[in-house]
Design a protein that fits this description.
The complex is a heterodimer. In chain A, the strands form two sheets. A six-stranded mixed sheet of chain A has the order 6-7-8-3-9-10, sandwiched between helices. By secondary structure, chain A is an alpha/beta fold. Chain A contains seven helices and ten strands. In chain A, helix 3 packs across helix 4. Chain B is an all-alpha fold. Helix content of chain B is about 80%, strand content about 0%. Chain B has eight helices and no strands. In chain B, helix 7 runs antiparallel to helix 8. Chain B is globular, with a radius of gyration of 20 Å. Classes of the chains: A alpha/beta, B mainly alpha. Chains A and B meet through helix 2 and helix 3 of A and helix 6, helix 7 and helix 8 of B.
């Protein structure tokens, strides 16, 4: 049920060639709702991608549940789901039901059982009846929901979301964040929608590759606003 | 904008036929279409394909859509072939196009990609090949959307006739799409199995 998973960044640094993106990040995240905020290019997306080993730190290490995200990437990715900004690049199958079932391909379930599970999950998150619908004809909000379903069907204990609401309108954004709030999973959210962080346990501000604030939502957002005004 | 025929849910005999047999039939038909030189035989194959559409009980809207785009292509090829090779060759080429493309569309309209992918995986015993088939089909949609958007952007800037204004952003967006897709697949655990 999500609780109990701890994400740890231990002296993490990252650089592309001689451009340093992250340096000296030390964090331990046991909370159920954590957000990263920061300017474009501050390194927060890179930090989020390290949690499931999509990007590997050039120094230090990232641990999920005590497992090294680089060395035990496979085991870590089984625990960590990831939702990206653009659902169009995450949806790999032509219809919504097939896309969710695609996630279950390696579970050894039979095709019928996979389709049934997929329909169940779609139903649970408000996409019931769309199983045979062409995925690319869904609305932006529905596509992002589909991307979420395709992750949740694997029952991860952590869900990392990299700016999942950037392409959504206000209503869909609110709905998506509300839904995140109800999940049993531990959630790490990277976002620019600052007014949605009210219910979060912890907000971390990243600036130029470093953690510059680590607090409750209100003071952290205030700090970030001041930083942006400089 | 969307390709001709994505899956159209249904319960006709053609929908229920196993993906593997349908695919073999499609290959056999395509081979026959290019081996046969008699316009009467080709006409017969075309009629069989049209009968297949009736058998699949597809919505008239989809059939009209396919007939329109296929009709445009056939008209263009017919005129070109007549001019270059004469009327006999033109009729032959057009019958071949109608039979082959009509059958291919009928296949995608009545077959779930997931079923096709599973069949390829089972027959070749390779999960990679199955995934390759699925992603190839998906890439057709993804790239046609990118092409439309890039063309719109070029038009907005008044450079719709420039090849560079199309090719450069199209290439960049395609590469970025490939990057993002790769990340998304990795996040879903694809490639983690030995």
């Amino acid at each position: 049920m999500g609780g109990g998973v701890v994400i740890e960044f231990d002296g993490v640094g990252h650089s592309y060639g001689d451009r340093t993106v992250l340096s000296d990040v030390d964090l331990s995240l046991p909370q159920r709702r954590v957000a990263f905020i920061g300017a474009n290019g501050s390194g927060k997306s890179t930090l989020a991608r390290m949690i499931n080993g999509l990007v590997q730190p050039t120094s230090g290490r990232v641990l999920v549940d005590g497992l090294d995200a680089t060395r035990d990437g496979r085991a870590v990715r089984r625990r960590v789901g990831f939702v990206f900004t653009n659902p169009d690049s995450q949806i790999v199958m032509p219809t919504a039901g097939e896309d969710v079932a695609f996630s279950l391909r390696r579970t050894g379930l039979r095709a019928k059982e996979r389709a049934r599970r997929a329909a169940e999950v779609l139903d649970e998150y408000g996409l019931g009846g769309y199983a045979d619908h062409p995925a690319h004809q869904l609305s932006g909000g529905q596509k992002q929901l589909l991307a979420l379903c395709s992750m949740l069907v694997l029952e991860p204990s952590v869900l990392v979301c990299d700016e999942p609401t950037t392409l959504l309108d206000l209503r869909n954004t609110r709905r998506f964040v509300e839904l995140l709030g109800r999940l049993s999973q531990q959630v790490v959210l990277v976002t620019h929608d600052l007014d949605l962080l009210g219910d979060f346990d912890r907000v971390i501000v990243i600036d130029r590759g470093r953690v510059v604030a680590d607090d409750e939502p209100e003071p952290a957002v205030r700090f970030y606003a001041k930083l942006a005004a400089e | 904008m969307s390709p001709l025929g994505w899956y159209e849910p249904g319960s006709s005999p053609l929908h229920r036929l196993a993906a593997g047999w349908k695919f073999l039939a499609l290959l056999a038909l395509a081979a026959a279409v290019f081996a046969v030189r008699s316009p009467w035989w080709l006409g017969g194959i075309c009629a069989a394909v049209v009968f297949g559409y009736a058998l699949a009980r597809l919505p008239p809207r989809r059939c009209r859509q396919i007939a329109l785009s296929l009709g445009g292509l056939v008209l263009f090829v017919f005129v070109l072939q007549w001019w270059l090779l004469g009327p006999d060759a033109a009729v032959l080429a057009c019958l071949r196009i109608v039979a082959a493309l009509g059958a291919a569309n009928l296949f995608t309209l009545t077959t779930r990609v997931d079923d096709l992918v599973s069949t390829v995986e089972r027959v070749t015993r390779s999960a990679r090949l199955g995934l390759l088939v699925g992603l190839t089909l998906r890439a057709v949609t993804a790239l046609s959307v990118v092409a439309v958007e890039v063309r719109e952007a070029a038009k907005a800037r008044g450079v719709e006739r420039s090849a560079v204004a199309f090719a450069v952003p199209f290439l960049i967006r395609t590469l970025r799409h490939a990057d993002e897709l790769g990340e998304a697949l990795a996040a879903r655990g694809i490639g983690d199995e030995p």
